[in-house]
Amino acid sequence: MGTNKKTALITGATTGIGFELAKLFAKDGYNLVIVARDRAELDNAAAELKKPGIEVTTLAKDLFDTANAFGVYDEVKAMGIQVDVLVNNAGHGHYGEFTDTNLQMELDIIQLNISSLVILTKLYVKEMTSRGEGRILNTSSIAGKTPGPWQSVYHGTKAFVQSFTEAIRYEVKDKGVTVTALLPGATDTDFFRKADMESSKVVQDKSKLADPADVAKDGYEALMSGKDMVVSGIKNKVQVAMGNLSSDEKNAEKMAKQQEPAGNNKE
User: Fold this and answer.
1) 73 flagged as catalytic
2) Which residue among 158, 173, 227, 250 is the active-site one?
3) Is 265 contained in some domain?
4) How far apart are the C-alpha atoms of 89 and 212, rounded to whole Å?
5) What is the DSSP letter of 210?
6) Of these residues, 95, 154, 173, 237, which one is catalytic?
7) What is the pLDDT of residues 17-67, one digit of tens each?
8) Does 2 fall in a domain?
């Protein structure tokens, strides 16, 4: 790769917000390392992202297995690629009341949403601070700002991501590295299908879901300007601001009404 060319590594980069972020990096002349589980989806994304002067490296890695997070780092290093921007975007949800949901799936989600994110952040922030330069974007969520009945584990993982991101941002602020959290709300991506959440009230009205391109633009601009966090969308900004004024019990009640299955009469 060209010596003057910067590289962005993006997890969960084949669809939704991750793919839209990849397009923005490519537009600005970054080489890309894109990571996702599905080889066919990676190849399709790479074909769309490639343009003259832009190199796209694909890694088919399942980050539900934390060994693969170490594998991403090792393989990229073996290729001699310096990662200038790390985007931890891969994430997964699991829908339902906690007494009924699949425990193994929830443990896997914790590994993906938290453990693999921590591994990649640790390995790359050490490189970045030693160089005195680098940027990290972690896809958090407004879910991390409030308890989430019907998605209790997902909301818990995003609360971790938000707190973790703010903490390490403070630690590296004088070392030439910025760490930014992107907090989307409900967005029109494949997330809800994968989470078996299509019966949820929040998903029923597609017109209320954010465009992933708009969310990615908000995150990209915040990352490049070195902001600590950005809540994407006016409605979500208001929801987070109002939530800060309410008790966790009240916030959980509000979120339950948004996320419960459509037609559910449970009070």
Assistant:
1) no
2) 158
3) no
4) 12
5) B
6) 154
7) 999 999 999 999 999 999 999 999 999 999 999 989 999 999 999 999 999
8) no
